[in-house]
Amino acid sequence: MAESPSQLLALQEYLALQELLALQEKKQAASPTAAKYLDDPLGFIDNCVTFPVPRRQGKRAVGLAPYQREVISSLPEKKRVAVRGPRGLGKTALASLVILWFALTRDMAGIDWKIMTTAGSWGQLEGFLWPEVKRWAYCVNWDAVGRPPLSERNELMKHGLSLRYGLALAGSPDQPERIEGLHGDAILYVYDEAKLIIPETFDAAEGAFSGADEESGLEAYALAISTPGPPAGRFYDIHRQAPGLEDWHPRHVTLDEAVAAGRMSMKWVAQREKLWGRNSALFMNHVLGEFCSDDEDAIIPLAWAEAAVDRWRDWDRAGRPHREGQSIVGVDVARSGKDRSAAAIRMADVITEIRTWAKADTMETTGIVKGILGAHPGARAMVDVIGLGAGVYDRLREQGCLVDPFNAGKKTTRRDATSQFGFANVRSAAWYSLREQLDPSRGSTLALPPYDELLGDLTAVHYKMMSDAKIMVEPKDDIRARIGRSTDMGDTVMQAMWLQAGSWLDAYGVTMCPDEVKCGRGFAAEVNGEPRTRCPYCDASLEEELAPA
Description:
Elements: H1 5-29, H2 32-36, H3 41-48, H4 66-78, E1 80-84, H5 91-108, E2 113-119, H6 122-137, H7 142-145, E3 156-157, E4 160-162, E5 166-170, E6 186-192, H8 199-204, H9 206-210, E7 219-226, H10 234-239, E8 249-252, H11 255-260, H12 266-276, H13 281-286, H14 302-317, E9 327-332, E10 341-347, E11 350-357, H15 362-375, E12 380-384, H16 389-398, E13 403-406, E14 422-423, H17 426-438, H18 452-460, E15 463-465, E16 470-473, H19 476-483, H20 488-496, H21 504-507, E17 510-512, E18 522-524, E19 526-527, E20 530-531
């Protein structure tokens, strides 16, 4: 028998009453401590977190910086807060403390809560944010909170939290659909290294905010933190308050604030200015906390180099697994007392490390390189043979080492990936080849070690298009005059990756006799600008296939 409208209405009122009673029961059961700090994250941190004492003797525990206190205290009122600033501000620590405040207070109050964390890369979540959350969980005063410490067995997970009334999760930054269906009475989104997060990922969170207001009693918060990058993307649009994003509250933490808080030293700032240049994108992004594009004529964009560093960190966290492929040691030999010799050790698509040394003569440098080759069986050395490097190359050959010459000033027949452009010399071709191998649109897998100097080198090199449709990379001497130092690390990585785009034979315009049995010698592919048709040594035709033996 169908129910009447009055019976349906009575049933709805009954269910609503039961839900209200359940909520009241949760509030009555809530811990006074948790209830006290529901809207007071700063009070929770001040009273329930013990800041660790630095290992150095005589140092006191370092608490929150003034700008951290300001950002944390503003979150309950502002709802959506975006923070940009230089390196070393404690942005990830700030996010971790906010996560613990939100999760613990809501859980103890019996509120259905969810936290979704995402970042510019999975490695940022796995290697930085969630280890930082775990580190701060050890600093919580659990007596003040009113519950036992989080159990690492079933509550404090590797990439999240699983408590009685809610969950904190890590979401892949390139799969927005996986963070879209977050439901709960209290929601928090955390975006770490937000400059790299695509707009679709930000948009996927909007469902949580659509019904959150004072009348509904639902909560939704968002915290986005990052060093800035190029002036593009959603994080940049938030900070410029683009139309439709006015409900975000941007905060720029300045260099002066970081220095005043003791989080950054002027000595470090001076060294980075000397290393990168005050007007470089690296200095603007990482020291001043400003959005800045790369130089238009920089051969390698900063974002591409930083992505390669992220891949190296992923490889490192995975236990440095072996990669099948070429093993090359790029060797750049110092030409003066101020410069350093450098060796980049490459395993397939990973530059595993870069070693540098200074004030070594030819024999000492030869011994260092031979030692590196001995530790990496099957590896070849790619030695810059201009200047002192010629002696190193000759001596390595005499000792039977696998070694190839890299002559930066030589002409080359190489062309770019589109086959539209040639190169003024081998140096230009090699640097542009490195650019193509770092290009994300080409599915780059190249991984580079996290050296500040290497990032500076890669982004300092400029190039231009010549009238003859050839690309010209500026000479080392011009770079040294412009930035005050030699790009040793960048050059040795460029040399290590040179063979990835082809052999050194084709790079120098050399071809091989097709009759490998009787001849197999190499020779110039052209004579006076005309292509050869026959081998100059055995007269074998270069245009016809050899008959089967």
